[in-house]
Structure formats: structure tokens, C-alpha cells
Amino acid sequence: MQPKTAALQRLDWEEDGENRSARWRSESGNPPPKRLVIGHDQMTADHAYRLACEGTAILWRGDFQNARQLLQAIARRIDNKPRKAKKPAAEVSPVDAFNLHRLAQSQRGRTLAMLILPLDEQYAIPLRRAPDVKDACEEAYGPPDEASVVSLREVLGLIGAHEWRKKGVEIAALGERIHPYYGVFSPVRGEYIDLVANQPLPSRELAFEIGAGTGVLAALLAKRGVERVVATEVDARALACARENIARMGFQRQVEIVEADLFPAGRAPLIVCNPPWLPARPSSAIEHAIYDPESRMLRGFLDGLAAHLTPGGEGWLILSDFAEHLGLRTRAQLQEWIDAAGLKVDGRIDIKPHHPRAADKTDPLYAARSAEVTSLWRLVAA
Hints:
Layout: E1 4-6, E2 10-15, E3 18-24, E4 35-39, H1 45-53, E5 56-60, H2 64-79, H3 94-112, E6 115-119, H4 134-141, E7 148-151, H5 152-167, E8 169-171, E9 176-178, H6 191-198, E10 207-210, H7 216-223, E11 229-233, H8 236-248, E12 255-259, E13 268-273, H9 296-308, E14 309-320, H10 322-325, H11 331-340, E15 343-351, H12 366-371, E16 374-381
Parallel strand pairs: 3-7, 4-5, 5-6, 10-11, 10-13, 11-12, 13-14
Antiparallel strand pairs: 1-2, 2-3, 6-7, 8-9, 14-16, 15-16
Helix pairs in contact: 1-2, 4-5
């Protein structure tokens, strides 16, 4: 079968002698597949793997739980595929290791995305033993409207995100749970939160936070006694997420979440920013919390900071040196940007990450992860 695509948002195909059409959904930005076959419970994992590697999508009509097992089997075949002879690790630069890792992850994701499912007009999956995903889909896609098709991998991600949103992430420094939305970076790496929790405040009158995300740092500043916090965000999901978290914790009188690119109007004695840590191009919308192409947000924060600080005010830049260990940015380059922005470093506190990958020697980026340090840079006008 040779499906046709329309405006990269619809998938048209032929099935049982009929022409069919549905909306194509992909939060990763994958285009609709150009080739499609119908998959049933009798399909073998080897056959499915070959089709997926060729770029042929499998529209599943069998049992949902069998589809999950098939996806796992395809993943095992990808992970166990014999690799071409590689250069010794000592001959591979950190930048090359990072780029090869991203390429491998991207290829793996595209292959796994070839197993796709139907969703009806109410976000029900019309398959045997399928879970109820209506709430999870509404949280990611908005109100239901029309029948669609989506990769099983994405559906499982929606389910996981829905559970995270319900359960929340325990933040010890807050004594509260933060509930992340789908596509909003979850504060699971708590070391940067501890840095903000332990640094003496230059003022309790007013603070700006640039890039609110889930609202965790704005809430922490309010809990520490800052009388007014203005937190900015441009992403619609993050705006809604931060506002809900702030309201849930009862900080809405202290904290205002506003839509703005970087700085709000005015000046403040404390301005906090935790930008994406890696200067690389995101491959999908939900990667913007991780990757900052050409360090645009970092440089925008630095360049505008002095003009938004009150006399004697401090800017707190929370940044990992992971990019430095990967060869994506140097410490000298960061210092040049600080100097060029009319700023100087008035102090810095560091903390080592505690996440499991920092100790996983099988990780291709282990050398960089094990050396990583997260810092809070105290910046003031020069």
C-alpha cells in the first residue's frame, strides 16, 4: 500500500478496498509515513523490524498488548544489531561521541515510531485490551475532534506523562510535589533546585525568573520569602503548567506567571535563569528544554541582565558544565559572553549531579556525565 500525505498532517491509505484518511499526530515532528501496511497479531517481530527499518509504517489492527510486546521486540533488535567497527574511544572526540549518540537515538526513535495506532474521534483506541487514554491525549493534544493515527511509542509516552502529572515529582526543598505537563521539562534533577534553595537571597522584595517551566523555582523563591516573583515563559504548555502548580501550592498571591520572551518589564534585585544546558539544535518541540541552539537563551539572558537589575542586584545563572565536557562550549567562551554583557562573576557555588546516568559506564557519554558539575553563577553589573 502506498499512502498519500496531505499538508504533512493527514495520512491517506487504502485498506480492505477502501480509501481511508485520518489526522496524523506526532509530537516529535515526524512526517506521515510514505508507505503503510496493516499489522495483525500474526505478524512476526522479524518481519515488523524489517518493515520499520525500511520506513514502512505498520498500522496495527490486532491486540493492543500484543502491539506493546512487538514494539519491545523491535527495540531489542535495534539495540542488539551488530555495530560497525568503531574507532577506539580514545580516538573519538567528545563532540563526535555526542553527535553519534544523538544520531543513533534519532534513528532508533524513527524506527520505533513506525508501529502506529488508530485513535477515534474521542481518543479511544479501537483495539482489543486497549487502555483508556482519553485524559492523557487531551492533556497533550487538547479537546478531541477527529479520528487520527499516532505511533504506539508516542501513546506510551502520553500514558507515562499522564501518570507523572497525576503523581507529581517530590521536591524536598519545597516540601511539595510539582506536577509536570506533557512536553514540559520535569524537575527530576534536584541538584539545581538545591543550589537555589541554599544561596543567600540579596533581597526578599522582588525576583524575576526567566523561563518558568513547571514553576518550581518561582515557587521555591516564594517559599523562601520573596514577596513578589514574576516568572516568564513563552511555551503555552509551560505557562499553563506553572500557573497550575503555583495555584496548587497557594503561591498565586506572590507569584505571577507572565507570557514573555526572556525578561518582563522593569528591574529586580534578583533575576534567576536556568536555561537549556546544551547548545545544540532540538529535533522536536519538546527538546527545547534541553537544547538551546547557538546558546540563544543563555546569551539573551546575559545580554539583557544588567539592564534589568536594580543597583546592587544579582543575576543567578544555573548552568551545568556538561556542554564543556562534550566540547560544545568552552569555559573561556562563557566568560567572554559574561564580560561582553557588562557583567562580572561575584561568586559561584557548585554541586555534583546525583542522577543514575552519571555512574553508568555503559553510557556512550559517560566520560562527560561523570565529570559534570552544576553551578549557580552570581552575576552583577560590572
